[in-house]
Design a protein that fits this description.
Blueprint lengths: L14 H11 L18 H7 L2
């Protein structure tokens, strides 16, 4: 199964939506990485939610 790209430009309203967003990207929650360790091209949702 490949990595699916989805649009995270629309800020997820809840942490659950954020979790699904990153899980669908195949990074962050699956590998329990922080947003700094994530591939920013795939995990912009993390930056947008936490603004860090």
């Amino acid at each position: 199964m490949g990595i699916f790209r989805i649009h995270c430009g629309e800020r997820p309203a809840t942490s659950e939506q954020h979790r699904w967003c990153c899980a669908d990207h195949g990074v962050c929650y699956i590998f329990r990485k922080s947003y700094q360790e994530c591939d920013q091209d795939y995990c912009k949702c993390v930056f947008e939610i936490f603004g860090k």
